[in-house]
Design goal:
- The complex is a heterodimer of chains A (about 650) and B (about 160).
- Helix content of chain A is about 65%, strand content about 10%.
- Among the domains of chain A are: about 160 residues, no CATH class; about 100 residues, no CATH class.
- In chain A, strands 2, 3, 4, 5, 6 and 7 form a 6-stranded antiparallel beta sheet that branches.
- Chain A is globular.
- Chain A starts with a helix and ends in a 5-residue tail after the last helix.
- Chain A is α+β, with helices and mostly antiparallel strands and about 650 residues long.
- Chain A contains 22 helices and 10 strands.
- In chain A, strand 8 and strand 9 form a beta hairpin.
- In chain A, helix 6 packs across helix 9.
- Chain B has 2 domains: about 100 residues, Helicase, Ruva Protein, domain 3; about 50 residues, no CATH class.
- Chain B is elongated.
- The relative contact order of chain B is 0.07.
- Classes of the chains: A alpha+beta (about 650), B mainly alpha (about 160).
- The interface between A and B is large, with 85 and 70 residues.
- Chain A: InterPro entries: CcmF_C, Cyt_c_assembly, Cyt_c_biogenesis, Cyt_c_biogenesis_CcmF.
- Chain A: It is a multi-pass membrane protein.
- Chain A: Keywords: Cell inner membrane, Cell membrane, Cytochrome c-type biogenesis, Membrane, Transmembrane, Transmembrane helix.
Chain lengths: ~650, ~160
Amino acid sequence: MINELGHFALILAFAVAIVQAIVPIVGAQKGWRGWMAVGEPAATAQFLLIAVSFAALTHAFVVSDFSLKLVWANSHTDKPMLYKITGVWGNHEGSMLLWVLILSLFGAAAAVFGGALPPRLRARVLSVQAWIGVAFLGFIIFTSNPFLRLAEPPFNGEGMNPLLQDPGLAFHPPFLYLGYVGLSMSFSFAVAALIEGRVDATWARWVRPWTLAAWIFLTIGIALGSWWAYYELGWGGFWFWDPVENASFMPWLLAAALLHSAIVVEKREALKSWTILLSIMAFGFSLIGTFIVRSGVITSVHSFASDPQRGIFILGILALFVGGALTLYAFRATSMQAKGVFSMLSRETALVINNILLAVAALVVFVGTVWPLVAEMFFGRKLSVGAPFFDQAFTPFMVILALILPIGAMMPWKRARLGRVVKPLIPAFVLALAVGGLAWAVESGNSLLALVAVFLGSWLVFGAMTELWQRSARNFGRLKRLPRADWGKATAHAGLGVTFIGIGLLTAGQIEDIRVAKIGEPFTVDGYQITLQKVEQVKGPNYTSSTGTMTVEKDGKLIGTMHPEKRVYPVQRMPTTEAAIHTTPLGDIYLVLGDPQDQGGYAVRTYIKPFADWIWAGAIIMALGGLLSLSDRRYRVAAGARKSRAASAQASPAE
Amino acid sequence: MLRKTFFALALMLSALLSIGPALAVQPDEILKDPALEARAREISKVLRCPVCQGENIDDSNAEVSRDLRLLVRERLQAGDTNSQVIDYITARYGEYVLFEPEKRGANLLLWYLGPGALIVALIGGFFYVRSRRAASEGPAQPDLSEDERKRLNELMGE
């Protein structure tokens, strides 16, 4: 009964979305207020209906209702409650339902909080948002219905991929989707602006918070996924340039670019058509990401759905939306007149370079991701593109970006004098060189990578500090009163630096030791005495585990007792490794228990991972910076008002 | 009862299966000579496991990856250089196992697209910025209309 209710609500939501897709925009074109007003209740109703549907599906998972095919295929009565709930989106159909739930949530948010928007713009935005909703609700109902029943419900379910039964991965998809789908808002605003034929500072002020929010969610989602790979896959890698990872990374890069170009539109009324294009492309890449993951066209470790029919459907949606938006763009882009003027050396120019670097870097990731497909289709070559390519082709962009970022961030709008910008940064630069040199000297391999990465990372951190210090006119009291946007910007940039340092030091300095460890016989890795004390068989809720007990000592002092596990999930007949990680701010000790050996003892892998957690700490700091900036919105709006009043008082054009 | 039997069966089966896959690099594979082993590791990074989904042979648990790891070490001990080992394996398993695509033929497009696009974008950016600077010498452009400004102030005031 509840399942049917959920199914019915989903179909009703589809109908409401169709109404919302047509009525408000027709109203906006014709100037009929009544029709335009339909958008708001429709968006709210659509969200509520999808929420009911989602709740019904969650209920089926919680009570293990195996009469639903989806629940049977992805759940099991022995599964812990947490994973019964996260199992709702741990599969294709459920994750698409989560996708539209978030899409309609953003639509409803725009309806509820968009009261101050010009009514025509709001009507158009809501309609465009509903077009996306119609496409994806149709996709779910016609190709991926989560509410299909089984005639004879089996006793128990098939269970869920054990790799997915993990808190890190359980919450990874919702964050990622909040990011992907959040970019649909900037897309809808961009298309509405193209229909309207105008883009101005007010428009940018509306788009920026949505983009910022999407970017924050993407940052957290990507960090969660990377952290999960680090501790779950059993060798402590944090990024593999896997197609599915790239699928989330490309929208992140473009959202970062959009975030910066929207500032130029907002403050200086330049880069308008470029910003519109970026809005379209950022969401386009979210759709491409969805396509790559959902179609399984480029198979990868994380992909759990591969069905060509669904792939073609999503490809159709992609072609329709991106193609349609780009066509509209081609007709209307010329009507976007830039107003602000600036010189070669200015914050505007710095942000143009930022956008070029981020966009081309995203292009490199994109081409690398689809190249195996292109090569096979057009050149008949079956080949692979992996980490060695991306490391070489992508890294230079990040190096250049980090080099110029602190200088660009210090530049004033309109016109800058290089001497004035660079001079306060000299101490930061020297300090960063010193820290990089220190890393180089201390690092056992004297690796160049450690030197460069630590230098760049510290340069970003010290540069961000210098910027705050300069902005507050070198006064501690004023430092506290700086607008949150300034703090947000500096924090996010410093977070990037922290991630740089983590990646550089981890990659350059990690130590690996693989050996057969006999029970009770200590061995030494990097100055740590490690002993495998015992291995026990333990039974978990839905798995059995060989749990090791290992002690780690340094100079006779016990540092920690660690329990690496090797689990077997009988329902899926799948073994997983659960590494034991001892975390300190300066690095992790990472232990993996392998198979028992014929001549006694166990295969044991020990990794020393210097500064590993800095990578994700940096990402969290970046997200925090975004959050700080987002919380400053009211201030920015007020400041904008003051400025425009001042401008109208002068009654002369700015330039 | 039935469920219990099934469970026990599944457990047995899984125990059997778990003997099968060997986990990544095994202790018995490692070469005595650390320099040679380090080279083997470097080579392994660019070799893809032919049956897995995007793992290199060092990280993979598949049997064929173990064979490849042993093959790499065999060739190294026979005195091959790194590139000879890679060529040897590519000749037998095809281009597919190379994670770093060769810089030849159509792949040149892949390798040089990034730098090429950067140069084009920088040139485009340069002309754009120059046009913005030149705009300052042209006639001043009209600002917001009076109505628009009123609306903006209304918005800002909220």
